[in-house]
Amino acid sequence: MTTSIPTRLDTPIAVAERFGDDRVEVRMKPGATLTIAGIAAFIEARQQLAAGVPMLVLIVMPEDEVDFDMSMITTNHYDKRPMADFSKAIAWVTRNDHNDRFCRLYFAYFPSPVPCGIFLEEKEALAWLETMR
Q1: What are the structural domain ranges in the chain?
Q2: DSSP E strand stretches across the chain
Q3: In this predicted model, what pLDDT tens digit does every residue of 32-48 receive, in sequence order?
Q4: Which of 62, 92, 94, 107, CA to CA, is 20 to 30 A from 115?
């Protein structure tokens, strides 16, 4: 019996989708509040979509300013996960100054275990991911 790899997974705060052999995109839902459980769900979705292959990851935040639980910002979400097993590089698209500051603050305290870039625009993020192939 063959199990097929999913190409799209819906989580409480985001939709994750696999594109080709080497890229996963995560698009956060408008109005989503970032929580520990929500972040865990979309990391698990990324891992499932990668199926054991390190992927280039594009994470796109909503256009509006994201809200978050305080416990989420003080938690290292990558600490106990084999990130390099399913993530080759991660590009965050923040889309506004608030989200950009939020991401930069988080990663100042909890650096990514794989190359990570933070960008205001999706075009910039995709260009950077291309250099990480």
Answers
A1: 8-131
A2: 8-10, 14-19, 23-28, 33-34, 55-60, 67-68, 87-93, 116-119
A3: 999 999 999 999 999 99
A4: 62
**SS3 letters for 87-125?**
EEEEEEECCCHHHHHHHHHHHHHCCCCCCEEEECCHHHH
User: How many other CB atoms are found less than 10 A from the CB of residue 54?
Assistant: 15
Whether 61 contacts 92, CB under 8 Å: yes
Structure-block tokens of residue 77: 């979400």
| d(C-alpha 75, C-alpha 110), whole Å | 8
pTM: 0.95
Pull the structure tokens for residue 32. Answer: 């989503």
Q: Which residue has the tokens 């865990």?
A: 40
Closest CA to 98 of 106, 86, 90: 106
Residue 42's H or E segment, with its range, is helix 36-50
The length of the chain, given as a count of residues: 133
The CATH number that domain 8-131 falls under is 3.30.750.24
Q: What angle do CA 13, 91, 108 make, to 5 degrees?
A: 90
